[in-house]
Amino acid sequence: MSSAHVSSFDFVVIGAGSAGCAVAAGLAARDAGSVLVVEAGPSDRWPLVRMPFGLVWTMGSKRRDWRYRSAPQSALGGRQIAIPRGRMLGGSGSINSMVWFRGRADDFDNWQVPGWSWADVAPAFDAVEAHLRPARLATPHALTEALSGLTGGNDPEALPTPERESAGVCRFNLHDGRRWSAADAFLRPAMARGVQVLQNHAVEKLHMTGDRIDRVSFVGGAEVRARKGVILSAGAIGSPEILLASGVGPAEDLRAAGRDVIADLPGVGANLHDHPGCGLHFMGAGSGYGLDASLALDWMAAPFDWLLRGKGVFASPTVEGAAFFDASGQGGTPDIQSHFIPFLLDWEGRRTRLGRGYFADAVVCRPQSRGALKLGRNGLEIDLGLLTNEADLDLLTRGWMRLRALMRDADFGDMKAPEAYPAAAVKDEEQARAHILAHCGTAYHPVGTLRMGEGDAPVTPRLALRGVRGLWVADASVMPAVTSANTNAPSMMIGHRAAEIIAADSAAA
Length: 509
Ligand SMILES: Cc1cc2nc3c(=O)[nH]c(=O)nc-3n(C[C@H](O)[C@H](O)[C@H](O)COP(=O)(O)OP(=O)(O)OC[C@H]3O[C@@H](n4cnc5c(N)ncnc54)[C@H](O)[C@@H]3O)c2cc1C
Description:
binds flavin-adenine dinucleotide, FAD/NAD(P)-binding domain
């Protein structure tokens, strides 16, 4: 698992994340040629990765999270936003909350990319789900069970969906209370078919012979050759960064940053966007989980409950439920997603807080704001462009106010708690706007930096990078627009389809 014996492979897949693992498995299943997967981070065989609640510690870990920070956000008074990204086998899928949503059918139709309509991608989701087997959380908190009534008339067993107003317990890619990521579902079985994996090796640059990318070099100097092609699956931050570091990108920007240009490709790093969101905290005795004397026994038993029975506080992936609703309150197609966490969490920069409670956020499903990723003289600049389009701020404000009203009316019985933050500090829509500008973050779903499409998109609908040969992109960076919910399942769907496309197109080349 930790070393490659030869320095030449048919395919080199860069990044063992949600998409990269699916690419490797798909190439192996088709006997497309020898495959090496290179991963900057370590193994995911670590108890805090397996344990759902462990993400509280792996997020922000020096070893397993890239811990990026955004450039100062112009619409947010120059605030910088944390951008966690998984750095190990399984990628961000090894530090995420494992919430499983395909997105909305017309998310894919709206991409308007030939071969990527809902009718095209639905079979690939079916195939991915046959491996991942996502299922409704087995042991949700009673508060999360009660969430189904939030938007009215929902069957408590029905799953929330971005297709219509709905709320309830989500599906997760968990088996027996343990994380089951793309590394488990795709990479390990692929290794049994001969795929090799090189971990703890960060790719620095790609190299060309003529117009063909055929070599990859690592930080520290070693190289590996790719006879049939290189597949970039380093994620929406890593993939464009590697291209720009290699001199592939907008020539003017690269020269201004003092870098050599090997291919002028405007569009590399553009179109960066994420789901903006802002939350509400509720706190009260007898409510959700939290650091409270009344739960001392539950916390003490938590490691054993999880290890022996896959249950208890440590079996919670923190986010347990979701709601989708129309911010206007007219009951139309949802434009807001809410994540529900039955825990009292920190706020205003405090890491821990005593007491019990719960949290819900409002997130814009289809943001219009766009930022850009650049490699300047001072290194990587990740401008998320959060809320730079006024329409996103208007929608988020209305959505946040509606969430507040829904939570006020929620039927949580004895477990219901009053709003603790921001509470009385925000009374009306104007104050809500200011609060959102001061506190909004993201749902950790950056996409779009190597958009696929026709015309001037840097990546073709067949996932080939324009302007060079021998390079395909397969990860969240190719999404022209983010899907209406969480992005792990769509990233794996992209990886799964990429393998089919690359096996066919590399054989024909
Ligand atoms: C904290 C957090 C919570 C989230 N929660 C959810 C959720 O509950 N549900 C959901 O659907 N989505 C969630 N997401 C988003 C989802 O996990 C991602 O959209 C998805 O994993 C992206 O897949 P990817 O293949 O594009 O990139 P990644 O999975 O990030 O994979 C990229 C891989 O490339 C590697 N890499 C990068 N640069 C290099 C380099 N130079 N050399 C070698 N390797 C490199 C990285 O280490 C990583 O392993 C969450 C994300 C985060 C960070």
